Structure formats: structure tokens, C-alpha cells
Task: structure prediction
Amino acid sequence: MSLEAYIDNNIFIEIEQKNISKENLVSNIDPNINKVFYSAAHLQEAHEIKGSPQEIKLRLQNRFETISSVTNNNYLFHELKTKIVHRIIEKPAVVYQTITEVSFGQSVMKGMVNNISEEQKKVFRNGLDLEITKLNNYSPTEVIEQINAKKSAFGGYSLLGLIDHAITLFPNNEDFGLHNKFAGVFELLDLVGYWKDKYNEKSNYARLWDSNHAYFASFCDYFISDDKRTRNKANVAFQIFNVKTKVISSKGEN
Result:
């Protein structure tokens, strides 16, 4: 049996720092994994690396080499117009060059995900009156049911219905595919407080890539992440979209 895995950015960092090896990873999870994939989301996150120009250059080179060695350049490529994800062979350095050609791209995305203040989110969460401690311990199905029970706060829409409605409000929404719906699910789950990310100036932007990783992982048998918040949000998104991908940590924990 041949299985495929997609690994979160935090796993690449652990491998880069020699805290775990690809062999350990496969052994901990499933010896039948014979292909590991990466996506443009990994390179978008690499673009956030800070330091002097020389330090950034060296760190990027290390990241490219780590991704390449772990995945053998197996790349999941999302074609926006067709909304099809292709499995191709491509070097991380080439992907990085492609996504950084549009210099304003990341600043625009950061602006889009930071258009609701944290204070506004707190007011909304308090109004929902959800017991977050209990919610965080529910199964994905129960989480969806609990949120849908509060649909009066969302204009009468269910969790998925609200996302579908929001997409209709955007111009050129014909280009909005499942990857955007994943982003919407992650954002709404965080908004209600479900495995909420620790807030900082980067958390909203980081969550966008968390949802992207989950989306790309939906085309594989395993999504491996050592971020428990991401794992739990991914499980809910997979439940909503009927995805069979198994979410697991590098140590084999659910």
C-alpha cells in the first residue's frame, strides 16, 4: 500500500533543526507513507524569515534544501482558474521565485486578514455565550452542531452557509474555490474561540497559511502538524467537506 503525506511548516522547521528526521516521522506515523508533499504555502511562510540580507539568504537556502530533501520536490500546485490541484515535481527555490515576483502580494493579504480588530472579536465571542472549554473537547461533528445552534448570531446562516454567503459578496467570486472555504472555516472557528490562536500582529496572517496547509493536505492520506490548534481546526474543516485525511502529530498523536 502506497500512502501520501503533507506536512505542516512546523515539521519542516523541526527537521531543519535536526529535532526529528523524515525516517522518524514515517516510522512514528505509518511505514506505508512513500510520498511527502509541499505547497506554495510553505514558501509564503519562508518569505517571512527575518534577518540581514545575508542571513535571510542562508536561511532560505536551508529551508529550500530541507523541503527538497524531505519531499523529493513533490509539489502540490493549485491552478486558480481551474481550481485543480496538480502533483508535479518542482524545486522549492523555483516556487519561491514565482510567488515573490509580485512584491505587493503579501502586504495585500495581510491587510485583508486584519480588517476586524481583536476587540471586535472579543465582543462577538462574549455575545455567543459558548462554553469554550467544553467546545474545545467536542468531536468535530459536535463542534459544528454547537456553532450551527448559534446561527441567529450569523444572520440565520449555518457555519458553511455563512461562508458560502460571504463568498457571494466578493467581486469575481467565480475564482473562489475550496481553498477559500477552508480559510473561512479556520477564521470562523477562531472567531468563536475554538482552539483560538494566541493573538499577536502575525496570528491572523499565520492562520491563513494554516488553512492553506489543511487544504493541500486534503489531497493526501495524512496531514502531519505539531500545532494542536491547527490540527483541531483542520479536523472540523475535514468533517465539513467530507475529507478522509487523517490529522496527526509528528509523534503519532491525534
Confidence is low (pLDDT under 50) at residues 103-114. The CA atoms of residues 34 and 205 lie 31 Å apart. The first strand starts at residue 3 and ends at 7.
